[in-house]
Amino acid sequence: MNLSSPSRYDALSRAFHWLTAIAVTVAFILGPGGFGRQMHEGLDPATRNDIVWHESLGVLVFVLTLLRLVWLAFRPAAPQFGGDSAVDKLAKLMHLALWALLLILPMSALLALGSEGHPLTLLGGLRVDQMPWIANSPIAKLADWGEVHGLLGDTLIWLAGLHAVAAIYHHVILKDGVLASMLPKRWAR
Predict the structure, then answer these.
(1) What average pLDDT values come out for the chain (189 residues) when binned by 10 residues?
(2) What residue ranges are annotated as transmembrane (predicted)?
């Protein structure tokens, strides 16, 4: 670790990280398989708690990611662990991919819903029935956005899993404080 950098992330950065991780994991677990087909068969998504939670958590992930990006401009210095090795460059690439997916995945969901004419259903009975700005846009016809969303969701979970394995490797094998920097003090042993 760089001696001039802190050994831990600030509390807000840690909270954003873990809230995002939990929201992504639960949204993935609740991800409605065959959602588009069920909607075409007349299913009202508001009648399915898994769909409502999945979509609500997707919006939460997007909002948390935007807030995290704003916080990056203001937060205290982040811990610096690496240098210019290939592993460090790979870690930076992994983080970039995770950030991109956290932004693109919710957008692909909106494209899927809007291009198919499906409503966005959220907790508390919030509902957006029509998204004509999406349905009438040229981008709506470029892909099967439901398929894209599913592929991106699978990719995010795989990369997040690799990210977690790398953090555990740093903790158990390298003992360099990478995982501890993102944990509460009482867990960071």
Answers:
(1) 74 96 96 77 87 96 97 90 80 95 96 91 93 90 92 97 94 90 80
(2) 12-31, 51-72, 93-113, 155-174
Distance (Å, whole) CA 151 – CA 105? 9
Tokens of 187: 């867990």
Non-local CB neighbours of 80 within 8 Å, separated by 6+ positions: 1, 2, 5
Euclidean distance between CA atoms 78 and 73, whole angstroms = 11
Residue type, 68: R
Give the position of tokens 């892909």: 143
Closest by CA position to 188, among listed 160, 157, 167 = 167
Tell me which residue of 21, 167, 14 sits closest to 76, measured CA to CA: 14
The CA distances from residue 167 to 43, 63, 164, 182, in Å, are: 41, 25, 5, 10
Look at phi and psi of residue 186 and say left if phi exceeds 0, alpha if psi is from -120 to 50, else beta: alpha
Q: Can you tell me the distance from the alpha carbon of 80 to that of 77, in angstroms, rounded to the nearest whole number?
A: 9
Structure tokens that stand for 180 in this block: 């501890």
Q: How many helices and strands in the chain, by DSSP H and E?
A: 6, 2
Q: What is the pLDDT of residue 86?
A: 86
Angle at 63 between CA 62 and CA 69, to 5 degrees: 90
